[in-house]
Each structure stands twice: as structure tokens, then as C-alpha cells.
Amino acid sequence: MHPPALIPGLYGLRRRVVYVTLYELIAIVAATIGLMWLSDQGAGHSGVVAVLASAIAVLWNLLFNTLFERWEARQTVRGRSLRRRMAHAIGFEGGLALILIPVFAWWFNVSLWQALVMDFWMVVFFLVYTFCFNWVFDRIFGLPASACAGPMPQA
């Protein structure tokens, strides 16, 4: 049994918009700081690529989560176990890394290897961040309909 949501009733597209907005606002600040440290560039230079990465991540997030929730809705076991949450975080961040490594290499004018190392540290941070954010988000807003037992609520 899952604890009740602090703010229940957030489903469908509205849930996705709230999720993506909160996630990316926090992510832009964290990525700017991380990229400043990893690249020895200032906040302006690192912030621009953090916003670009965020825009890419939003599109990837919408696609990935739509596909993940379709898959999840077909599973006989409901809820979000530790294993399912880990698969979600790894799948999302792994796909995003494949997109962002060439972007980092181009923007910071570094080799793909250097961009991979930069992205590695960003992925380490974002794996933890994604896991924690999802757990807190689900505690506040409840699980999505795809993870709940019973009929799917209408948006």
C-alpha cells in the first residue's frame, strides 16, 4: 500500500506539465553549477548550454515517460518498486546522454571523450536527482494512473 498523496488528483497531461516544469527548473540551476565546475567556464556560457540541455531533456522526458507509462500500464504488478524506479532513471538518463554528449563536445569545443567525462559526472548527479525527484513528486502528487490499481482516472 502506498501512502496517500499530499496533493491528490493530478493525472495525464497536467501531471506531465507540472512534473517537467518543476524538474527542469531545478535541473537548469544544478546543471549550470555543475557545468561551470566541469568546464571552467562562467555561468553565462554554462547556463546557455544548461538551458539547451533542458529543452532537449523536456522533449526526451515527454517521449520517454509516455512510452514508459504505456509499458507500465500493461504490467500485471502495479506500483513503483525500487527496481522499476531504477530502470526508469537509467533508461531516461542513458537516452539523454546519447543526445547530450555531442552537444557538450560542440558547445565547449572539447573532444567526445572529454564530453563523455563531463556527461558522466552530470549523469551520476542526475541519476540520483531523478530518483529522488520522482520519489518526492509521487509522495506529494500520488502515483500516476498507470501505477495505480483499479480503473484509470480520466484527465
From TrEMBL:
Domain Chlorhexidine efflux transporter, chain residue ranges per copy: 13-74, 80-142
Coiled coil start-end: none
InterPro entries in alphabetical order: BTP_bacteria, PACE
Annotated Pfam families: BTP
Organism, as annotated: Giesbergeria sinuosa
Alphabetic keyword roster: Membrane, Transmembrane, Transmembrane helix
Chain ranges passing through the membrane: 17-38, 44-68, 89-108, 120-137
Protein name per UniProt: PACE efflux transporter
